[in-house]
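Quarterly update from the structural biology core.
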Amino acid sequence: MPQQGRLVDWNDERGFGFIRTDEGERVFLHISALRGSGRRPSQGDEIRFVPGFSSDGRLEAKSVKILGAAAGKPAPHVAAPRRTFPEWRVFASLVIMALIAAGIFLERMPQHVAWIYGVMGVVAFVAYGSDKRYATFGQWRTPEVTLLGLDLFFGLVGGLLAQAIFRHKTRKPRYVMATMLIVTAHLGWLTAFTVGALDIDVALGALTTGLVSIR
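Predicted structure, tokenized:
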């Protein structure tokens, strides 16, 4: 049975919020439930919906209509939030690429290091972009540990650029902290190779020996 309430909390960037019904109940609302509603919702809108439940048992709004929204009416123009540049993720990715280029130029690391970072960076960029799209439409999500794993295993440049471009995974303090730790680790070892403080052949030999001993 349809119910009515007011949208009391709405995050337009992430595409979800909460409706408070006339009985005081808070109901989750995802942007995917408003397809064909005429415009994107905004805080304070009166909402008509059919209550339902999500896969995890949470009370969720279905078949949502914004009262007074004309079908097919274009969404009103909302100025995009101003971004501060240089964004630290973009800056960090540029520093990583510069260190790789310097290390190869100084012959302190092989050229295939750049290829590994490049290929894995593309994989990470696509993974972040797909996860952002999944989040928008309420589909299956990529686990955060997978995204962080791609960053750690040489996809960091693509991951950082995707976070900055898609504005994805940039507001969770724990995720941001994990990303910064991964950035620090990559900057540390790339700097060590570039300045000659660490020999890549020795490092690879030690890693191979360690893996053999584990087996």
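The beta strands are 3-11, 16-21, 26-30, 46-53, 59-66.
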